[in-house]
Amino acid sequence: MLEDLSQHILDISENSLGAGATDIRISIANGEETGVLVFEIEDNGRGMDPDLLRRVIDPFCTSRTTRRVGLGIPFLKQSAELCGGGLEIRSETGVGTLVRARFRTDSIDLPPLGDVPASVGMMLVLHPDIRWRFRYATGHGDWTLDSREILEALGDRETLRDPSVAIWIREYIRENMNGIGSQ
Length: 183
Fold this sequence. Notes:
By secondary structure, the protein is an alpha+beta fold. The chain has 6 helices and 6 strands. It has one domain: Heat Shock Protein 90, CATH 3.30.565. It has a 6-stranded mixed sheet with strand order 3-4-2-1-5-6. Helix 1 (5-18) packs parallel to helix 4.
C-alpha cells in the first residue's frame, strides 16, 4: 500500500505519462469544513477503452510490460474506501482520463498528504515538456501553479534541471500550500 497521497500523485502521474498525456492537472481540495478531501488527476492521454476501464481496479490488470501487476489504482481505491469515501474513474479513448478519490477527513484511516510539494515539483522538473497544473484548495482559499508560467519566467526548459531551481520550485509550492492551509 502506498503510504500517503503524494505517492499516489507520482503513481497516477506516471500512468498519465505512459498514456502519452501532454497536459496533466492535479488537484487536492482539502475540505476540512465539509469533511471531505478530494484528490484528482486528469490528463489528455490516450484514455482507456470500456473493457480496460472496467478492469483497471483489478491489481492483476496492467498495460505495462515491465511487470504483471498494477497496484496504484487498486491501492488508491482501497485507501479511499477505508476512509468512507470512494474512487471514480472516467476515461474516453483518444480524450483522456480522470481519476478522482474522495476521503472522509474525520476517518482515522485518512492517509497523510505526504510531501506533495516534492512530488509535484519533481514531476515538473523531470518532465518539462508536459504542461502541469496543480491546484490546492481549502476552506481558506485556493492556489494554482501552471508549469507554463514557471517556464516563461525561467526562459527555457533546461533551467529546470538546475538543482537550485528544483529546490526553489518545491519550496514555492510548499509555501503556497501552507499559506492557503493556515489562513
